């Protein structure tokens, strides 16, 4: 596609609110010098006596061995970090029935909520550090701390120990791993960023698929301690290889001032509306992931192992959703693909989960599969949509800021879900999620509209 014939490209490249023109080209230009020569003229010809330099923002490899190794490294790092986040439901359910059986579902829900919250919220701190120093030390420190957390988690026995170990230490190290992994992918891909980050995010869905199944087999055979240790050794292997493959392409801006909170970027209405949408998506996604095992155990007469299998099915289908929609988004537009997936997820909640979820196991599995596919699209394309609104060397700051706001949703969604299930029933909880997702769809449509400069066009590739 010729970028000069794409109206969205012309609009975005001339939009004064964006920090950098977002131009896509089917033939990436390669260059070995990743800095801007400010004294070069606008034609790209170097000034007299100076060497020609090309902006790294226009020199994305879009493939090659090194770029795909980075994607594999990110996938391996997201398996234990994001993968454990999206499969935390079975662990929460086990604690409710054993070590923390004297606590309510709401109280126990605060532990995984803090874990997920800090993993996303601290991206506001990790992102600028990545932009300034690169991924090496952030990934190494995060990996070491995460493995320590897993083996300490096996020794926890009382509430405050679980909170400090899983909630606080796990959240801090998880933020380093997730933000660094996704930011590295953004350095190597632009036109194909949806596909690349979709492949990287398969690591998290594969973790969400396998971790519940591992715990399903190991909890009754080996007990809690060795079940968590087995996960710890599995995570260790993934993180060692992942750290070897992770590399940044754009040199760190070591002389730049690190801004932890950049309120000025909210002046871009596209970004602000997108952040509100992500907030709503995270409530629905992590609320469902955290409460589905408890929903299946407490609210219905389904078999006791149903919760393990529901989470596995959701995350297994999610991996397909991330890959397929990541590929489609590069063809039809990332905002377009994500908006369609959110609307389909809302319809499935209204038509399947709300009326049939409590009484029909087949319908519940059908909903979980469809919902997993669509939420896989969310997790793969939200970072790609954020990256479409900024330069690659600013991705860490934009991603961290957006998820700092969105993470507030994860802090309260699991305890609120547990309280709704126990106090007013499962249908009220599902209705609550439907309302939140409807708001998210509206604000995301507004963000897409803002990308088109308030001229709605169904056919534009956004």
From TrEMBL:
The keyword Transferase does not apply. InterPro entries: MFS, MFS_dom, MFS_trans_sf, Proton-linked_MCT. Residues 69-462 form the Major facilitator superfamily (MFS) profile domain. It is found in: Membrane. It comes from the Eukaryota. It is a multi-pass membrane protein. Keywords: Membrane, Transmembrane, Transmembrane helix. The chain crosses the membrane at residues 67-88, 108-130, 137-154, 160-183, 195-214, 226-246, 267-296, 308-328, 335-356, 362-386, 398-418, 424-445. Residues 1-28 are annotated as: Disordered. The keyword Transmembrane applies. Belongs to the major facilitator superfamily. Monocarboxylate porter (TC 2.A.1.13) family. This is Major facilitator superfamily (MFS) profile domain-containing protein. It comes from Knufia obscura.
């Amino acid at each position: 596609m010729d970028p000069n014939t794409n109206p969205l490209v012309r609009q975005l490249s001339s939009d004064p609110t964006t920090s950098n023109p977002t131009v896509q080209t089917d033939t990436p230009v390669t260059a070995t010098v990743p800095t801007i020569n400010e004294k070069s003229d606008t034609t790209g010809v170097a000034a007299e006596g100076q060497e020609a330099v090309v902006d790294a923002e226009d020199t994305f490899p879009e493939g090659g061995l090194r770029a795909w190794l980075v994607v594999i490294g990110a996938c391996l790092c997201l398996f234990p970090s994001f993968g454990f986040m999206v499969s935390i439901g079975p662990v929460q359910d086990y604690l409710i029935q054993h070590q923390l059986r004297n606590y309510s579902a709401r109280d126990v829900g605060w532990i995984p909520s803090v874990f997920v919250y800090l993993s996303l919220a601290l991206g506001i701190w990790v992102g600028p550090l990545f932009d300034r120093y690169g991924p090496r030390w952030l990934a190494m420190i995060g990996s070491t701390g995460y493995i320590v957390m897993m083996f300490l988690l096996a020794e926890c026995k009382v509430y405050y120990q679980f909170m400090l170990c899983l909630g606080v230490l796990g959240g801090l190290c998880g933020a380093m791993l997730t933000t660094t992994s996704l930011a590295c992918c953004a350095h190597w891909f632009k036109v194909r960023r949806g596909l690349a980050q979709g492949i990287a995010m398969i690591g998290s869905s594969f973790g969400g698929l396998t971790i519940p199944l591992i715990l399903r087999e190991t909890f009754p055979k080996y007990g809690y301690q060795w079940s968590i240790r087995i996960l710890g050794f599995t995570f260790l292997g993934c993180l060692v290889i992942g750290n070897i493959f992770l590399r940044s392409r754009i040199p760190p801006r070591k002389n730049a001032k690190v801004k932890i909170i950049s309120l000025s970027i909210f002046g871009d209405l596209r970004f602000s509306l997108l952040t509100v949408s992500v907030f709503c998506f995270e409530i629905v996604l992590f609320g469902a992931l955290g409460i589905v095992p408890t929903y299946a155990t407490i609210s219905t007469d389904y078999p006791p192992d149903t919760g393990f299998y529901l989470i596995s099915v959701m995350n297994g289908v999610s991996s397909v959703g991330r890959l397929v929609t990541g590929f489609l988004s590069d063809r039809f537009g990332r905002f377009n693909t994500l908006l369609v997936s959110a609307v389909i997820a809302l319809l499935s909640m209204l038509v399947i989960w709300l009326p049939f979820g409590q009484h029909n196991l087949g319908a519940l599995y059908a909903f979980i599969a469809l919902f997993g596919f669509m939420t896989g699209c969310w997790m793969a394309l939200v970072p790609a949509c954020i990256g479409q609104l900024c330069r690659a060397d600013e991705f860490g700051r934009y991603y961290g800021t957006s998820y700092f706001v969105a993470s507030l949703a994860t802090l309260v969604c699991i305890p609120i879900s547990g309280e709704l299930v126990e106090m007013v029933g499962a249908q009220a909880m599902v209705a609550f999620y439907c309302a939140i997702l409807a708001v998210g769809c509206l604000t995301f449509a507004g963000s897409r509209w803002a990308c088109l400069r308030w001229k709605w066009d169904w056919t534009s590739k956004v």
